[in-house]
């Protein structure tokens, strides 16, 4: 459905992959507070997804929980179509689902490599491919990909993750070129952020990690979500194909 009515626009849908916890959950809260109907996507964390749906609904927002593996096109397509069915249309796609695995090239299996690429990179293509017919119906729409500092620095314990996140930058630029001007595509590269993904590392060597970061702390998920909300807004229409680093300055070290 195409509409230029602003009130109506605020009632559209946003697909956020991997949004039951961590950065994705913060993004879902933020976009729901802006009036978007949000999909709370998970693979194993159904309880957390349902809890977040209740939280968003209690705050007056609209949300539903949906299990879909970001590394599987048919499941992602079903997630996107369910989002479009529940809300009037889809204006925002946030590719956030991701995981890291601590392994060296020597230890990495071919299956490890393929799984990391499937979830962290192919998943973003799958979501966009499935959502494109909906995004194209609107006068403006937004794609935001959650990348990583590792795309820029590489990794000595997760080459598959770093390669997937680097690929996400190329995908972001290509989408920006192909889909301009109505649809923008941008990426955010967080550094250390306070989520489950980093819990073990922060528990073990949090003090040393914080000391390395010029900001002297890790990011909170809500800080990443605030930047997503801006890039997903109408007023960010002149920013496209960018990857914004958000790492407290650690990349300068
Ligand atoms: N935390 C950091 O320091 C950091 C830094 C740079 C980039 N990032 C990126 O930020 C994004 C979010 O990370 P996070 O720190 O919030 O991670 P997290 O706390 O581990 O949460 C990951 C979320 O993604 C979901 N997920 C994982 N694999 C999935 C799959 N195959 N299909 C669908 N959903 C899946 C999880 O679902 P379940 O709850 O069902 O498991 C969970 O909701 C990731 O792309 C990550 O690479 C994080």
Measured between the Cα atoms of the first and last residue, the distance is 48 Å
CATH topology: Rossmann fold
Name of the CATH architecture: 3-Layer(aba) Sandwich
Biggest β-sheet: count, sense, barrel? 7 strands, parallel
Name the helix and strand elements from N-terminus to C-terminus, one letter apiece.
Answer: HEHEHEHEHEHHEHHE
CATH class: Alpha Beta
Judged by helices, strands and strand pairing, the structural class is: alpha/beta
Instruction: Write down the domain tally.
Output: 1
Number of helices: 9
* CATH-defined superfamily: NAD(P)-binding Rossmann-like Domain
Quick recap:
This protein has 253 residues and is of the alpha/beta class. The chain is built from nine helices and seven strands, in the order αβαβαβαβαβααβααβ. The protein has a single domain (7-246), classed as Rossmann fold (3-Layer(aba) Sandwich).
Secondary-structure blueprint:
Layout: H1 6-9, E1 13-16, H2 22-33, E2 37-42, H3 46-58, E3 62-67, H4 73-86, E4 90-95, H5 110-135, E5 141-146, H6 149-153, H7 159-179, E6 183-190, H8 196-212, H9 221-231, E7 243-246
Parallel strand pairs: 1-2, 1-4, 2-3, 4-5, 5-6, 6-7
The protein binds NADP nicotinamide-adenine-dinucleotide phosphate.
């Amino acid at each position: 459905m195409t509409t230029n009515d602003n009130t109506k626009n605020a009632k559209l849908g946003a697909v956020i992959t991997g949004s039951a916890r961590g950065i994705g959950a913060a993004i879902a809260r933020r976009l729901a507070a802006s009036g978007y109907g949000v999909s709370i996507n998970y693979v194993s964390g159904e309880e957390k997804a349902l809890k977040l749906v209740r939280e968003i609904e209690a705050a007056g927002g609209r949300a539903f929980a949906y299990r879909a593996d970001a590394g599987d096109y048919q499941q992602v397509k079903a997630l996107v179509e369910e989002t479009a069915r529940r809300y009037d249309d889809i204006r925002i796609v946030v590719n956030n689902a991701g995981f890291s695995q601590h392994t060296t090239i020597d230890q990495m299996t071919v299956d490890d490599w393929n799984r990391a690429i499937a979830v962290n990179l192919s998943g973003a293509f799958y979501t966009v491919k499935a959502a494109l017919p909906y995004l194209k119906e609107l006068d403006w729409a937004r794609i935001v990909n959650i990348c990583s500092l590792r795309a820029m620095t590489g990794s000595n314990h997760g080459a598959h993750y770093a390669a997937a996140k680097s690929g996400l930058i190329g995908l972001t630029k290509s989408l920006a070129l192909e889909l301009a001007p109505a649809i923008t595509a941008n990426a955010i590269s967080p550094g250390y952020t306070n989520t489950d993904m980093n819990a073990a590392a922060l528990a073990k060597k949090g003090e040393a990690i914080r000391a390395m970061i010029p900001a002297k702390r890790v990011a909170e998920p809500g800080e990443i979500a605030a930047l997503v909300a801006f890039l997903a807004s109408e007023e960010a229409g002149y920013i496209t194909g960018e990857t914004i680093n958000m790492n407290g300055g650690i990349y300068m070290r």
